[in-house]
Amino acid sequence: MLRQLSAAKPCCHAPPHSVGCAALHTKAPAASATLRNAKRARTGLQTQVPAANSSTDFQPDVEELKAQLLDSFFDVDRGLNLTSEVGAEILELISQLEARNPTAAPNEAPDLLSGTWKLLYTANSELLPLLALAKLPLTRVGDITQVIQASSSTFQNKVLVEGPVSRGSFMVDATFEVRSPTRLQIRFKEGTISAPEIVGTPEFPATASVLGRPIDLTSLRDALEPVNSAALFAFGQLRQVLDQLPDQQFPIPSKSATTWLLNTYLDEDLRISRGDGGSIFVLGKDAATDMVDTLDLNAPLDSVIPDR
Question: Quick check: pTM over 0.90?
Answer without folding.
Answer: no
